[in-house]
Amino acid sequence: MRGGEVEVGTTYLVEVPQVLEADHRLTFGALRGATFPLTVTTLEETEVEGIRSVLSPTTAITLTAEQCLELGLPEGEYEIIGNLRTPDGTPIVLPRVQTLTVPIEWLVPFTDDRPQGHWDATGSLW
Length: 126
Description:
The mean pLDDT is 89.
């Protein structure tokens, strides 16, 4: 797509190329050849920032000042990151919001017809 065709607040399908330029390999290497929906929040000249929903068993909890005091931690902000599991050890998968910046040319209008040759990463952390 082109910048003039993209609107903030609209959801588009991102088609990540199979072959990535060097500056995109680290961020999008695991998503090569994938498609996923992205709702645009910020529009720049050549790229957009947007949000997508991913599923993950990983969660984060920020401790309150009282909890830090009870644990004997020095004053500051602390976060516990880990996996949420049922008593039998089964991971509980929850949706969370991920913010990504992608090139505008990776966006296509969002339809029910998915492009051939790409794998569907909708909701997938990868």
